[in-house]
Every structure is written in C-alpha cells, then in structure tokens.
C-alpha cells in the first residue's frame, strides 16, 4: 500500500518533468532553428504588412528543375528536412515556404484565410525568386493548397505531387458545422499530451519514436507561450477554411501530370468526434480515397505505401522518396 501511495504522489512530478522537457517557443519560432537558412518575403495583403518565411536551397549540381514543398496544417517547413536533402542531392532546387499563420511567418490578428490567398502569396514568392516553372508538392492541408495553386497557375505548375492530401472528401456533407469560436476554444486546450495522443492514434497507429516526438514537441512548444492565443485563433480560422473550401470538385480540371503518394493506413478526417460511430467509419479511408482521386485527376498516377499513415515522408521515407524522384526526372 505504501508503494502505491508513493507512486501516486510521484505522478504529478512525472507530468511536471514532461512539461519541463517541452521547450517554450515564441509564436514566430525565432528561438527554433530550421535545417536551412530562412529568408523573408514582405507582403502587403489585406491592409497588413506581413512576412512570409521560406527556405530556398539551390544545390551546386543544380539540374535546372525546381520543386516547392507545401507543409500540412499541424506542421511547418522544418519537417521537410530529410526530403530537402534527398532532392538537392539529385540536383533539384527546393523552395519551402511557411504559409502566413504558420511556422516563422507572421501571425496576423485578423485575416481572411483562403487557399487562393495562399496560392497568390506563393506565386509572389516564386516571381520574387525568378522561378517561372516548378513542380508543386503538397502534404495534408498543403495538398489542398497544391491543387488550388495548380488550378490557378497551370503555366507555373509543371507537375503536381499530392502526399496524403486532406480534402479528398467533402466533410461538410456529413459533419455538422462548427463556428470559428468553437475551433478557437478547442485549440486553446492543446498541449503536448493531447498532440501526442492525436498523432499516435491518427498518424502512426499507436507507434512512437524520437522522430515523431520531435515534431510533436515542436507543435507543443507554442502552447506554452504567452501569445499562444494568436496561434490558436489563426489555427481556428484555418480549420474553417479547410472545412468550407473543398477543392476536390475541380480535380477534373487539373492539367499538370500528377503523382499521388498515399499511405494507405491513413484515416485522417476533420470532424470525426462530431459524428456517429457509423459515419466515422466512412471517413478518411485513404486506401479507397487514393484510388478515387486518381480516377478524378487526368494524367495522374497512384503510388500506394502500405502500412503507412498520414506522413509517408516521415514514417516511410524510402518508399516515399524513390517514386517521387523517378516522377520528377521523367
């Protein structure tokens, strides 16, 4: 009995030590080092002066081909480190923006988030860098943006790559709408334990390792900052954007050669807690969604990565990078 009581008394200390382990990060990640040099593009949009962070890595063996990497909603450009190294080794110039509201980019107090605005911001960046043509690769939410960019700027998007993109189904058809204030209150409750639990269940099928831990800690670092409410508000606005601005109905209009890289274990879908168990089972079935999307996008190819969840470039890197490089060199 005394041993049990002692363990109970120690539980708060274990919890405290975990919180101590999380490095507090300011909302623009000025105290977090990215794997490559970060530059900033000044943008005057929606009556605000904002800064868009980006990495631009041009290798010595540059092959005159470019690729832009769009991050997902729960991430930023830093998680492309291994991908950047592999692509630059092959001679590709790699451009990795943090979209407004993400990573090291500005976190505006008031902003109307649209995929069209993100796409236009990225086009301004490419014009600034003198890049006329490039492959566009998007993961998760970045996949929705990559599709929108390709539709808006077909002359720029030579090729399109979608890695486990969200938005392959229209959730608003089955999930009840929640206002931005609801998402905001939900985001304010975020912490390391919640982030890890979500990612372990939805991304990694119960698995966990130091690499997964690194990205969970990066997201959790924000939650300890006094200005985290700004991050939470921007995140809430983005949830509304994702939920209300589907792009899948326009897949048929994509002209660029397209590669779909799909981890078939993925079950990611927004709004699962808001629906019945019966409806939940029908959501986020990437094994089927990948095949359906490949049929919807003309001139597209599907690469399935079995036993892999939402982040192939983190969980199954070799299976992700090999077909990507083959596609880029075609």
TrEMBL record:
SUPFAM superfamilies: alpha/beta-Hydrolases. GO terms for cellular component: membrane. GO terms for molecular function: monoacylglycerol lipase activity. Residues 66-316 form the AB hydrolase-1 domain. InterPro entries: AB_hydrolase_1 (IPR000073), AB_hydrolase_fold (IPR029058), AB_hydrolase_sf (IPR050266). GO terms for biological process: acylglycerol catabolic process. It comes from the Bacteria. This is Peptidase family S33-like protein. The lineage of its organism: Bacteria, Pseudomonadati, Bacteroidota, Flavobacteriia, Flavobacteriales.
């Amino acid at each position: 009995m005394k041993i049990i009581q002692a363990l109970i008394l120690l539980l708060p200390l274990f919890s405290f030590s975990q919180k101590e382990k999380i490095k507090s990060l300011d909302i623009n990640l000025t105290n977090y080092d990215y794997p490559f040099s970060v530059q900033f593009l000044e943008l005057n949009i929606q009556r605000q002066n904002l800064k868009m962070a980006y990495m631009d890595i041009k290798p010595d063996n540059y092959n005159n081909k470019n690729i832009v990497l769009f991050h997902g909603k729960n991430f930023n450009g830093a998680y492309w480190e291994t991908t950047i190294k592999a692509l630059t080794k092959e001679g590709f110039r790699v451009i990795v923006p943090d979209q407004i509201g993400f990573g090291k980019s500005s976190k505006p107090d008031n902003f109307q988030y649209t995929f069209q605005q993100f796409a236009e911001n990225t086009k301004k960046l490419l014009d600034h860098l003198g890049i006329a043509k490039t492959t566009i690769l998007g993961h998760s939410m970045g996949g929705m943006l990559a599709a929108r960019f390709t539709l808006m700027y077909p002359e720029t998007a030579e090729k399109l790559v979608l890695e486990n993109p969200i938005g392959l189904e229209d959730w608003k058809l089955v999930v009840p709408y929640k206002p931005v204030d609801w998402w905001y209150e939900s985001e304010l409750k975020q912490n390391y334990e919640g982030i890890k639990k979500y990612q372990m269940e939805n991304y990694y099928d119960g698995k966990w390792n130091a690499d997964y831990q690194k990205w969970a800690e990066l997201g959790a670092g924000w939650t300890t900052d006094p200005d985290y409410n700004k991050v939470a508000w921007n995140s809430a606005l983005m949830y509304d954007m994702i939920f209300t601005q589907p792009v899948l109905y326009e897949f048929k209009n994509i002209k660029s050669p397209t590669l779909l890289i799909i981890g078939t274990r993925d079950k990611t879908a927004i709004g699962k807690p808001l629906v019945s168990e019966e409806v939940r089972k029908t959501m986020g079935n990437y094994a089927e969604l990948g095949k359906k999307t490949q049929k919807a996008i003309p001139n597209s190819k599907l690469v399935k990565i079995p036993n892999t969840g939402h982040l192939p470039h983190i969980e199954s890197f070799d299976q992700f990078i090999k077909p990507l490089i083959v596609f880029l060199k075609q």
